[in-house]
Write a structure and sequence with these properties.
It is a single chain. With about 230 residues, this protein is an all-alpha fold. It has 12 helices and no strands. It has helices at about 15-30, 40-50, 55-70, 75-80, 85-90, 95-115, 120, 125-135, 140-150, 160-170, 180-190, 195-210. Bound molecules: iron/sulfur cluster. Iron/sulfur cluster (SF4) binds near residues 7, 166, 169, 216 and 224.
Amino acid sequence: MRSSEPILCQKKNRLKASQLLRVYAALRKAYGHQKWWPGDTPFEVMVGAILTQNTAWTNVEKAILNLKKAKKLSFAALRRISKEKLAQLIRPAGYFNIKADRLKCFMAFLDRECGGDLSELKRSTMPVLRDKLLAVKGVGPETADSILVYALGKTSFVIDAYTQRIFSRHGLVKGHETYHRWREIFTWALPKSLDLYNDFHAQIVRTGKEHCRKVPRCEGCPLQRFF
Ligand code: SF4
């Protein structure tokens, strides 16, 4: 296999649990457990999930550092801060006015749902929480699923562009499915394990960043021998 070419499988097999688990085992062996999500608290994870929309994580880290330095990385502080001041603090994350608005909407949601008490929020079931999150302005399926798994400890598989690229390049999924369909495929195939959902997505992101870029670097990729 030349490193510039993706591995393409001609047979469009239905995704099976055993295939997915073999993929996960190979990634885990290569990279070790990723211990996601990078964040000190579930609240920080939620804020990071919104800030990371359409930007690289390194930019999110700068925005979060600004919030920490200004002592604004808490529910109470973000509820009180003006949108304009918040936008300036999160400027490194890009789209800062839009993201400030989204964070304020999210704080209003937390206030309504649980008064900022995340242990209270966690009492709801995953499907109920997911529907509520999706109703918040600026929270799409990827953000909602990231918050569910990494901040609230609910088994909801996250689908992102790397997942779609890797599994369609390997011919396991056709590639034009909707987010809902992708999530359904993984959820049906995988055992319901929070640790698996957590770490599998993290492994996929690492593979996407290191190997499965727009121009794939198959040479040395842990998935090179697959399918
Ligand atoms: S996952 Fe790895 S082996 Fe598969 S296409 Fe992407 S870079 Fe190539």
